[in-house]
Design goal:
alpha/beta; 6 helices; Formyl_transf_N; GART_AS; Formyl_transf_N_sf; EC 2.1.2.2; purine biosynthesis
Length: 215
């Protein structure tokens, strides 16, 4: 059965594009059935429209609380009967009610090798710490910010002349590789969330997730 995917964005949607490309090529056994943004003027909505994908805009500023916004968002999302929710640069902290509603079927990507550097400014923090490698992690979303079980990580080396900007570019390349891969695994029912962590091909995955190896 082909899976139904709803993607949430707040910006340009480069990870969204990588996922759309992977669904259109047949690599992912699923379709992006809707893209929802909390901002009306972002390029990610154009990417969706260009792929003939339904778009929804829900301005969080029109709501008097985080709870009322999330409730309205759930109603919109559930109208598309999704199997999977993908957060692709969605710049909102979600309420516990929202997270629980989609438990086990919502993925996020974070620009660090979790559990290192939860939160913001991850590239600069990796540089400041003198790390020799950095990267990104796709994880299932739980109520703990950037704390859900990791599915897959993509690593990059940190060179002596790297800046925060150059490191961000390296990590973006990995993001566009591992996010479609994570969605592919979920839609093929190879990866799932459990109380023990991520189950991959019938085995509990390592705490840091599957390590992506570029070809």
């Amino acid at each position: 059965m082909s899976k139904r995917i709803v993607v949430l964005i707040s910006g340009s949607g480069s990870n969204l594009q990588a996922i759309i490309d992977a669904t259109q090529s047949g690599r992912i056994n699923g379709d992006v059935v809707a893209v929802l943004s909390n901002k009306a003027d972002v390029f990610g909505l154009e990417r969706a429209a260009n792929a003939n994908i339904a778009t929804e805009v829900l301005n969080h500023k029109a709501f008097d609380s985080r709870e009322s916004f999330d409730a309205a968002m759930m109603q919109l999302i559930d109208g598309h009967t999704p199997d999977l929710i993908v957060l692709a640069g969605f710049m909102r902290i979600l309420t516990p009610e929202f997270v629980r509603h989609y438990e086990g079927r919502m993925l996020n990507i974070h620009p660090s090798l979790l559990p290192k550097y939860k939160g913001l400014h991850t590239h600069q923090r990796a540089l400041d710490a003198g790390d020799t490698e950095h990267g990104c992690t796709v994880h299932f979303v739980t109520e703990e910010l950037d704390g859900g079980p990791s599915l897959v990580q993509g690593r990059v080396s940190i060179d002596p002349d790297d800046s925060s900007e150059s490191l961000q570019q390296k990590v973006h390349v990995r993001e566009h590789q591992i996010y479609p891969l994570a969605v592919e695994w979920f839609c093929a029912e190879r990866a799932s969330w459990s109380s023990e962590g991520v189950v991959f091909d019938g085995q509990v995955a390592p705490a840091e997730g599957i390590q992506f190896k570029p070809e």
